[in-house]
Design brief:
Blueprint lengths: L9 H30 L7 H22 L5 H25 L5 H25 L12 H39 L4 H42 L3 H8 L4 H26 L4 H17 L1
Helix pairs in contact: 1-2, 1-8, 2-3, 2-8, 3-4, 3-5, 3-8, 5-6, 6-8
Organism: Paramecium primaurelia
Protein name: Transmembrane protein
Keywords: Membrane, Transmembrane, Transmembrane helix
């Protein structure tokens, strides 16, 4: 593994340094963003949104440790299974959007069952079946993990399409209402909310496909191509300048896509509302 502390050649050390610094900088950004989220009282985010942001923060923290210091596959399995857990929660959100109030509890029960299954998968891959090296591609563990993640991402994509269809219909109705100048201000606010929701769902149902699609492609390639664990290491560690570049991009995509999307959806797209709430709080304190 291209960790910064135990790297054994210049290319691997440079790869480890790049990945560690990028993860560290992003971790600092997420930490500051999460502090704002935890102190927010505007009610923009519900509890599951906060859970997702916390999970994303923890994953980036573990990822940073992984790039700094690592010598077995326990942490790698943990990071990958956390990605699956976040994908399940995204499926839960999308399922709640396309379902009615009666179906929402059933969707949550299914999500909880899948989360328990993910914990069992993590226990098997990271503890029971752990390897002496971090990425042992001749074992089927990571291929199973990425396959499950890709399957869930496809489910998320399907539910996202259904949710987008419903929102587009509602958007078209609001277009008609706005053009008729009926309740202009109220419809304008609803229209803005729908546009934001469309952007959020679009990001939700594409991010998993990118992360787990890249993971699955790499895992199945190395599983077929390699005959022993040493060959896995050769594919997973940099051996040239160009391999430093593409391995850094690959590892950041397979680890960071979901956390980055989650914070973009729940923090960046609501930042103005958080700032407005802060201004209102300051004004209230001044008047008092």
């Amino acid at each position: 593994m291209a960790n910064l502390i135990y790297c054994n050649n210049g290319y691997i050390c440079f790869e480890g340094l790049m990945e560690f610094l990028l993860s560290l900088f992003y971790l600092c950004y997420l930490f500051m963003s999460y502090r704002i989220i935890t102190h927010d009282k505007s009610g923009v985010l519900v509890q599951i949104d906060r859970y997702l942001c916390f999970a994303a923060l923890i994953q980036i923290f573990l990822q940073t440790i992984y790039f700094l210091y690592f010598d077995n596959d326990f942490l790698l399995s943990t990071i990958k299974c956390m990605g699956i857990a976040m994908q399940i929660m995204i499926c839960n959100i999308l399922g709640s959007i396309i379902g009615d109030e009666e179906q929402a509890p059933k969707v949550w029960q299914l999500a909880k069952a899948l989360l328990i299954s993910t914990f069992i998968l993590w226990f098997w891959a990271g503890i029971v079946h752990k390897s002496a090296i971090d990425y042992n591609c001749v074992q089927v563990d990571y291929l199973i993990v990425s396959s499950i993640g890709l399957f869930l991402a496809c489910g998320s994509f399907y539910m996202g399409n259904l949710a987008l269809e419903g929102l587009m219909e509602y958007k078209n109705k609001l277009d008609i209402a706005r053009s008729g100048n009926i309740q202009v201000q109220q419809n304008a606010q609803k229209y803005e909310q729908v546009l934001i929701r469309i952007k959020q769902i679009t990001l939700m149902h594409y991010c998993g496909l990118l992360q787990f699609g890249v993971q699955f492609a790499f895992d199945i390639f190395t599983y077929i191509k390699c005959d022993n664990s040493k060959e896995c290491t050769n594919y997973y560690n940099a051996s040239s300048t160009i391999s430093v570049l593409y391995l850094t991009i690959y590892k950041l995509i397979q680890f960071t896509t979901l956390p980055a999307t989650i914070f973009w959806i729940f923090y960046e797209m609501n930042k103005s509302k958080f700032q407005e709430e802060d201004r209102n709080t300051i004004e209230m304190n001044i008047t008092q």
